[in-house]
Amino acid sequence: MSGAVRPRRRDSPVGTVLMLGGMIIAPLLACGLLSVLVVAANEVFGAAVRPVTCGIFVGCVFVHFWWRRRREQRAAREVAGWVATGGWEPVSPRPWPWQGLVRWADTVTVLRAYAKRVEGFPVVTGELEFSDNGLGTSVDRRDGRAAFAVVTLPQPAPSMAVRAHRNAVRRGEGDDDEFRRRFRPVGAESHRLDNPELRAAHVRGDIPPWTLIEDELFVFVPLDRPLRPRDLEEAARKAIRVVRLLDVGADELAVEVGEDG
User: How far apart are the C-alpha atoms of 18 and 168, rounded to whole Å?
Assistant: First the structure.
């Protein structure tokens, strides 16, 4: 993503170490396990060790893909039930607020989206996929899927965002501002970005990096598993939490809610 206002998600050093460790250790463990199986099969089956080993390998691959497909189908049923019973309405293709920040439009694709009024705000939440670093540093990876949420505000507000440093700035002597060390406000010079509660929520990880453009605030929450209702609800909840902390359009919203009774 490009542009003056762009959210960024922090790469946790611990998460990076675990990911790299998994990339190295998992293949080693798999090779070690396969070697043990080959030795054991050679002792039991003798000359038939190769066909037996191939059979075991094919069986493991089949079970893996079968289990993944089953998880995806179960997750799809849960989302369908959530939409049917929760009052959510499918959203047709529409202009998305991040489109002006995406360098190549075909690298970000919205797979599904649903709309509903939540806590007085019009909210759209859904799932998208991205490739070739389509979302830039607004997420912690170059490719994948993410749950997103867009909250429409009662009125436009100055564009602003909070980005997370991919590598947290090293703490200097006497520096106790954890927010500034890990995050960087972007855009409008606003007193709202100095809100201690907002900064504390970022430091605790309660809210993700976000972007506010005119009257729409949006967040991305990367997915490491099939999309489930709780992922959509979490994205919507976190986006509304940011709106509440920013106190954007609160007076107008209160009037609107009061008129609705």
Answer: 17
54 burial level (CB within 10 Å; 0-12, 13-18, 19+) = exposed
Does position 14 have pLDDT exceeding 50, yes or no?
Answer: no
Backbone angles phi, psi at 7, to 5 degrees: -75, 155
**CA-based nearest residue to 245, from 212, 221, 213, 220:** 212
C-alpha distances out from residue 167 to 45, 140, 163, 182, 183, Å: 53, 11, 12, 8, 10
Q: Please give the residue range of the domain that contains residue 231.
A: 88-260
pTM here?
Answer: 0.71
**Is 124 a domain residue?**
yes
Q: Does residue 7 sit within a domain? A: no
Q: Are residues 208 and 182 part of one domain?
A: yes
Residues 129 and 173 in one domain: yes
Q: Judge if 33 and 92 occupy the same domain.
A: no
User: Please, where are the H alpha helices in 106-249?
Assistant: 178-182, 196-204, 229-246
**Structural domain tally of the chain?**
2
Digit-coded pLDDT (tens) for 73-112: 787 899 999 999 999 999 998 999 999 889 888 999 999 9
- The whole-angstrom separation of Cα 207 and Cα 218 is 12
127-136, 147-156, 181-190: which range is least confident on average? 181-190
